[in-house]
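retry 2 of 3: previous attempt timed out while embedding F0G. Reduced batch size to 1 and resubmitted. Inputs unchanged:
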Amino acid sequence: MRATTETLLGGRHILRCVHCGTEQRAADPLFQCEQCQELLEARYPEWTPLKPRETQQLKRTWRERRMSNAPEDVSGVWRYRELLPVIAPQHIVTLKEGNTPVWPLRQASRRLGLENLRVKHQGMNPSGSFKDTGMSVALSMARVEGFEVVCCASTGNTSASMAAYAAHAGMKSIVLLPAGYVTAGKLAQALEFGSTVLQLRTDFDGCLRLLYDVVRRFRAYLLNSVNPWRLEGQKTLAFELLDQLDWQALDHVIVPGGNLGNSSALGKGMIELLELGIIDRLPKISIIQAAGANPLVRTMRENGGRELIPVEAETRATAIRIGNPASWRKAVAVLKRTGGACEDVTEDEIRLAKSELGAEGIGCEPASATTLAGLKKLVRSGFVKADESVVLILTGNMLKDADYLRQGDKQQLIGPMEADAATVIRALEKLYAAN
Ligand code: F0G
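retry 2 succeeded.
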């Protein structure tokens, strides 16, 4: 039965332009449409809605694979391989990505008057961010296509992830990053995993533009989220999330928005589940940006998503310090199709939300905390209602950006002081008397 299901759903895949709809078999090095240079997306033209019995069988197969120790079953990406391009197990590059936890947010639920608020923490992936799910698929594709060198522009997490997967596959990797705007932790990962790192005097948008010129002339496989296979991996977030919720319908999923690959991928995953008849309604997918890096918010507000309004990005949430997002068209389509909202949040709102998550024992990097900050606004505006179920997608591990915390006013940090018991006890007594 397993083999039948794979044939049924695996099928042929094509790349289709998200703007003009042109279909092409092979991708050019930039993953651009040969007609209009817009982004491509993977499509599976042979897919048709499943019969209820087939849906049940598929869900059972996915569940059974959790009992297996085969790498392609342990991976929270390849476990759902019926809905991915077919890659032979020996070519799959996996660090057992996915399998990230879903946790309730009890204190925030109470404060916001919500009955059912949870987070899914993609920062618990092997390299500490959601990028790993997409990297597993795209890097496997690079290997199938015979590349030995891979590359990306990055605000830090894509490079950390790419470096890890490339090293694991025995490939070389090149990173272009905005000098001075990548956290020490993320940079350390890229270096540890052997990437060649070029720090450029520009922002992320400038790095990505420059990388396009590089891959036109230098044979290296582009691993930014303009690569449609990245999004195929990242769409499994939708499958794993619903699987973990026993396929109960969700009302809202809230994600941070930077280059807008992740929101696009999540939407694609949900829409595919709907079109295959595996779920019967879509959650609203809402995208939250930092107020200093809010091109999508402005685009939706000022022209309803017709034309991108790029901005000069500035935010301490460096992961999403992006003013000219590549996947904006895909993200607009997801907002429109799912009826989601698009909001921005200030630096203070991000900092507060991050410490509120921390107070529940859930660490994340600043970009991820935009989701809780955004949710507060959406509850206030009545967009999210008390009895609706909500999942926030936390995208990066807290340890990615420890400096952010150190620059905050964490009053629990005392000293340096003399290392003797009397001094320590005096300090504790003073602190507890004050509180
Ligand atoms: N959260 C984190 C922690 C990120 O690293 C990123 C993007 C995002 C959210 C936004 O996701 O770009 O798909 O909308 N980081 C990229 C990088 C740009 O280079 O690591 P997006």
